[in-house]
Design brief:
single chain, 69 residues, mainly beta, 7 strands, 0% helix, globular
Length: 69
């Protein structure tokens, strides 16, 4: 089932599950997103820290996410 995860004003680590359609929204801090499926989506807004996506798959960074690991 689809879901939404929201970050806080601090530095967040947000994990998405494989096989689940999840949209993750970061907050003001430096956020780290762990993606396990192509159905996982990250949304970051300008000026909200230095953000990172950690994933094993080929992935194109969305706007306002600075790092891919």
């Amino acid at each position: 089932s689809p879901g939404t995860f929201n970050g806080s004003s601090g530095n967040d680590s947000i994990w998405a599950s494989s096989g689940v359609n999840v949209t993750m929204y970061g907050g003001q801090g430096d956020d780290i997103y762990y993606l396990y499926s192509a159905s996982n989506k990250v949304v970051e807004y300008a000026g909200q820290g230095v953000d990172t996506i950690n994933t094993w798959m080929s992935y194109t960074l969305p706007n306002n996410v600075e790092n891919l690991v």
